[in-house]
Specification:
Porin; eight-stranded antiparallel beta barrel; mainly beta
């Protein structure tokens, strides 16, 4: 019975989902883990499709405090979407990062950096997508790999 219910759900999702098109937008939230700081993060983002395959993706991320160190990050990434099916997309990403680090002993550091990564998403319906993303955040003294999951509202 469980297998039948899962199969029917996948069929409904496949029929109603569609890949992104020029002008499409989404607002999403993500949670994940930053391996350099060894802490969880939470973020919000906005995606805008300039063409069917190319989109810009500004975001804000807060990395929770661990061993007295936390960060707020503003990223401006570009993503090149490769549609594997009408329901699944894959993308490499590259962009710039501005991070504000709060360190022990009331020391604060502001750093510019570069993001390089990969992501994938499933268009669960016309308005909902879920995905995963892994990126390398290259920042002087604060390099790290960040991996997370994303839930977005598409419009």
């Amino acid at each position: 019975m469980k297998k039948l219910l899962l199969f029917m759900t996948l069929i409904v999702m496949a029929v109603s989902a569609q890949a992104q098109q020029r002008g499409d937008m989404s607002v999403g939230t993500s949670v994940g883990y930053g391996f350099g700081n060894k802490s969880m993060y939470w973020g919000i983002d906005y995606n805008y499709s300039i063409t069917d395959a190319f989109r810009i993706a500004p975001s804000f991320t807060y990395q929770f405090k661990h061993h007295g160190r936390s960060a707020a990050m503003i990223d401006a990434n570009a993503q090149y979407l490769i549609s594997l099916t009408e329901m699944v997309g894959f993308y490499p990403l590259a962009g710039l990062s501005l991070s504000f680090w709060d360190l022990p002993l009331d020391i604060n550091k502001t750093r510019f950096g570069v993001n390089l990564g990969l992501g994938a998403e499933i268009y669960a319906s016309d308005i909902i997508s879920v995905g995963v993303e892994v990126k390398y955040n290259c920042i002087k003294s604060f390099d790290q790999v960040m991996a997370g999951v994303r839930l977005a509202y598409r419009f």
